[in-house]
Design brief:
The longest helix has 26 residues. The chain is built from 13 helices and 18 strands.
């Protein structure tokens, strides 16, 4: 299909998806294609879909309509998690030309160039997820300051609410040596911070000869990256040795953990098929705070899971209220096909789910504000990233406090030591 030479991308969902879109973009660039913006009438649209996003079908249809309105003759390719789970549904969307599942998305150019020019054929390549065993490395490269490095893919856990194992397959990764080679590709990029991402990154090595702790020890030796940040790690995989290393021994890993909880009710955790209880979770939080009181801790929580009575929700609320954490990512439970949870009869009404979500989001704001206030009058290092309104530059401290400083020349994409002065009404810390 040689008449197609420009490509635009749209990514839905997580940072892992963003890293993979960047990797696919580089494949096209190496193949002689030019990357353009979505509204620049590209020849090809690539939409990287997400299975976690609510109303995934609605969002996909909207993006295809938008693409076809900009360029009616464009070639639209859908790939990613939703494409793996619902290929027949997606190919029926008017305007979609190709759907690629997990096993084929990184061979997109090969599949594209096999199709005849002006072909009206629609192509769906969707191998059973059990056949997806190869690990394809990826890192994002669109931001000047930060890169999301994919170190792991897939998951073996099969939590009762989650479709990710069905969309991405079994847990897998490259070797530590191969992962280090990927990081080396960033050496001349100017990137200051690398965020480790994946589906279940703590499962790196899957109990084999290498593990996540050994990986971060090796990454810590890379001198041209100033900061490494762990995106999210399961509490049962966040070992004492990882905590000790990040908070005490590491030169480059920052004091910030994001640890999924999902519920403060042990009854619901068991029903969700999570691999820990609140006692273990509390132990992890206390261990972190005993080491470093100003370490930032983010928490994922799901509201409205089947069986979440008012009493069970209050257990979650009270547990989180008393826990020394910094912020929440609150997800309103929504039914997913092919999960165990969808079979449950004790569903929570959607209006109740939304009310509970608002309550926890309000709690999150209080937690975040308290954490920020505790940082006032302290000295921190900040990676400055972008211009902000009223002639300010914003960035994040090592422990994930968003700050702003009066605009200074050449400060963007540099790490500077600052004094945290006051928390302003926009929720950003003023520093000097």
């Amino acid at each position: 299909m040689n008449q197609y030479r420009t490509v635009a991308y749209y990514t839905l969902g997580c940072k892992l998806n963003f890293s993979e879109t960047s990797a696919i973009s580089r494949l096209f660039e190496n193949g002689g294609y030019a990357k353009v913006d979505f509204d620049e009438r590209p020849d090809i649209y690539i939409i990287n879909t997400c299975s976690v996003t609510e109303n995934a079908d609605k969002k996909c249809r909207y993006l295809v309509r938008k693409a076809k309105k900009i360029n009616p003759n464009s070639f639209v390719i859908m790939l990613g998690c939703y494409a793996q789970l619902k290929p027949k549904e997606i190919i029926e969307i008017e305007g979609v030309n190709m759907v690629l599942g997990a096993n084929d998305k990184f061979n997109v150019i090969e599949h594209l160039e096999k199709m005849e020019a002006n072909s009206q054929e629609k192509l769906v390549l969707n191998e059973p997820i059990k056949k997806t065993k190869h690990f394809f490395p990826a890192f994002s490269s669109g931001e000047r300051t930060r890169s999301y490095l994919k170190i792991q893919d897939g998951c073996d856990y099969f939590c009762s609410f989650c479709t990710i194992p069905l969309a991405r397959g079994k847990s897998r990764n490259a070797s530590i040596a191969s992962t280090l080679k990927e990081v080396k590709k960033l050496e001349n990029s100017g990137i200051k911070e690398v965020v480790l991402t994946g589906v279940n990154i703590g499962d790196f090595g899957q109990g084999g000869e290498e593990n996540f702790f050994e990986l971060i020890q090796e990454l810590d030796k890379i001198s041209f990256i100033e900061r490494f940040r762990i995106s999210s790690i399961e509490p049962n995989l966040l070992s004492d040795e990882i905590i000790d290393f990040v908070l005490n021994d590491s030169k480059r890993f920052v004091p910030h953990f994001h640890i999924p909880l999902q519920s403060g009710s042990d009854f619901l955790l068991k029903k969700m098929k999570r691999k820990y209880d609140t006692a273990l979770y509390t132990k992890r939080i206390n261990k972190i705070k005993d080491h470093k009181a100003d370490c930032c801790i983010g928490v994922d929580v799901i509201v409205g899971f089947p069986g979440e009575t008012e009493e069970e929700f209050e257990k979650t609320y009270e547990y989180l209220k008393d826990l020394d954490i910094s912020y929440l990512h609150v997800f309103t439970y929504s039914e997913r096909a092919k999960t165990n949870a969808i079979k449950s009869l004790d569903k929570v009404p959607m209006d109740v789910r939304r009310n509970r979500s608002r309550k926890l989001q309000f709690l999150s704001e209080r937690k975040k504000q308290l954490f920020y206030q505790q940082q006032i009058q302290s000295k921190k290092s900040v990676l400055f990233e972008s211009k902000h309104e009223e002639n300010y530059i914003t960035g994040f401290t090592e422990n994930y406090v968003k700050v702003k400083i009066k605009d200074k020349p050449d400060i963007i994409n540099s790490v500077k030591n600052v004094f945290l002065k006051e928390l302003q009404s926009d929720g950003i810390m003023l520093c000097e």
